[in-house]
Write a structure and sequence with these properties.
single chain, about 200 residues, mainly alpha, 9 helices, about 0% strand
Length: about 200
């Protein structure tokens, strides 16, 4: 029996929601089963941060896919994927706050001031907070056109995430380079769309 369009939309959203939650479930199982390696806190911090960056780039990829290939179907998942990005970045920060520094606010502030990669990462995290809050439909309607301007900060957040990762690894930059290249393509696509609109 064929599903209706609304039913297919619900099935699609439930599927994307569950699949997006799998990395968090996998990490939780790793904690329970003690399979996160010799330094579980470091592993947890790294993986939550990387998943946050991945979801952020996937969210930014949806509009170019729609504009270039007509894949309109994926637009309905953009907000959910963006919120999942914030979810994993929040887990990344909470891991750093709770397990790495044990709520030592003075040490965290000292880290933010003295370590550039933490400074950049923290700024990116702060900028994600209003984006996550204003993803609610009621706030989007109230903000009107200002919502679009505000949510352009997502590119700044993505750039901060890439720089944070790059400065963190220092030597082995292959992985952050792939993320940086992906972001560069997405930024180029954004500039191209803007140029086409101006024309």
């Amino acid at each position: 029996m064929m599903l209706s369009k609304s039913a297919r939309g619900i099935v699609g959203k439930v599927t994307v929601f569950c699949v997006s939650l799998l990395p968090a479930i996998n990490l939780a199982m790793g904690i329970v089963n003690n399979t996160l390696g010799a330094n579980p806190v470091e592993s947890l911090t790294h993986q939550t941060g990387e998943w946050g960056l991945r979801f952020l780039l996937i969210t930014l990829l949806i509009t170019p896919l729609r504009r270039w290939f007509g894949w309109n179907y994926w637009m309905r998942f953009r907000r959910m994927l963006g919120l999942y990005s914030f979810f994993y970045v929040l887990l990344h920060f909470l891991t750093y706050l709770v397990f790495d520094h044990f709520f030592n606010i003075a040490a965290i502030i000292d880290d933010i001031i003295k370590r550039p990669y933490i400074t950049v990462g923290f700024v990116g995290f702060l900028l994600l907070i209003p984006l996550a809050i204003t993803s609610l439909s009621v706030l989007r309607r109230r903000l009107g056109k200002s919502w679009i301007t505000l949510h352009r900060l997502v590119y700044v957040c993505a750039l901060a995430g890439v720089v944070h990762f790059w400065w963190l690894v220092k030597a082995d930059v292959l992985e952050p380079f792939i993320y940086a290249l992906t972001l560069a393509v997405l930024l180029f696509a954004r500039m191209y769309f803007w140029y086409q609109k101006r024309r």
